[in-house]
Amino acid sequence: MAGHSQFKNIMYRKGGQDAKRAKLFTKLAREITVSCKVGSPDPDANPRLRAAIAAAKQASMPKDNIERAMARATASSDGADLEELRYEGYGPGQVAVIVECLSDNRNRTAAEVRAAFNKHGGTMGETNSVAFNFERVGLIRYPAEAGDADAMLEAAIEAGADDVVSDDSGHDIYCQPDDLNAVREALTAARGEPETARLDWRPNSTVPVDEATAQTLLKFLDVLDDNDDVQRVAANYEIADDVLQKLSA
């Protein structure tokens, strides 16, 4: 297991996106609705729903919003017709990108995601066209204040995790997909409720991008993130710290 990361620029991007509360609440509500639809409406019996509710609470989503999202799973409304979709392709700089969506209109979502790829010099491919660049993993994330790197590493080992990545922003704990619920339960008992517990895509290798490419790439990823149908985006890029600082400024 490793206590440091070569992937720290990949999974989390901070900045203006954090302020988009309305869009964030929409995405969280959709995940809650689908979690109820595909599993039990009881969070204690549905780990995916429990994780979705925890993420909503972490984002300060009002309790009424959470309850309405759960109710949509059984109501005769379009909320119950949400479909899980996945799109793949190459973005600027030949960066591999996986886009996971929840949508009530497959044609609309496909058109909008394809337009984002095309507008920014990318190419959307078929399913599994870039998935070989990634490993399917369970991801459990804790904030930095949950403990120091050594404490989180020890807790992760005890819980049966495979890897830990710690930096100033927090701790990413990785495990096998089938072990996600068990590792999450063990870590919750040891370190409290995590910020995130979900299946994710971890790059097998990364693609370095220069400043000009990084600027276009980040705009492209922001466009995807800004789409209400897009739940999360994984990409195998690596941007040097000095370039990130320059772009942030």
From TrEMBL:
<dbReference type="GO" id="GO:0003677">
    <property type="term" value="F:DNA binding"/>
</dbReference>
<keyword id="KW-0238">DNA-binding</keyword>
<keyword id="KW-0963">Cytoplasm</keyword>
<dbReference type="Pfam" id="PF20772">
    <property type="entry name" value="TACO1_YebC_N"/>
</dbReference>
<keyword id="KW-0805">Transcription regulation</keyword>
<dbReference type="Pfam" id="PF01709">
    <property type="entry name" value="Transcrip_reg"/>
</dbReference>
<protein>
    <recommendedName>
        <fullName>Probable transcriptional regulatory protein GGD88_003056</fullName>
    </recommendedName>
</protein>
<dbReference type="GO" id="GO:0006355">
    <property type="term" value="P:regulation of DNA-templated transcription"/>
</dbReference>
<feature type="domain" description="TACO1/YebC-like second and third">
    <location>
        <begin position="82"/>
        <end position="237"/>
    </location>
</feature>
<feature type="domain" description="TACO1/YebC-like N-terminal">
    <location>
        <begin position="5"/>
        <end position="74"/>
    </location>
</feature>
<dbReference type="InterPro" id="IPR026564">
    <property type="entry name" value="Transcrip_reg_TACO1-like_dom3"/>
</dbReference>
<dbReference type="InterPro" id="IPR048300">
    <property type="entry name" value="TACO1_YebC-like_2nd/3rd_dom"/>
</dbReference>
<comment type="similarity">
    <text>Belongs to the TACO1 family.</text>
</comment>
<dbReference type="InterPro" id="IPR029072">
    <property type="entry name" value="YebC-like"/>
</dbReference>
<dbReference type="InterPro" id="IPR017856">
    <property type="entry name" value="Integrase-like_N"/>
</dbReference>
<dbReference type="InterPro" id="IPR002876">
    <property type="entry name" value="Transcrip_reg_TACO1-like"/>
</dbReference>
<dbReference type="GO" id="GO:0005829">
    <property type="term" value="C:cytosol"/>
</dbReference>
<dbReference type="InterPro" id="IPR049083">
    <property type="entry name" value="TACO1_YebC_N"/>
</dbReference>
<keyword id="KW-0804">Transcription</keyword>
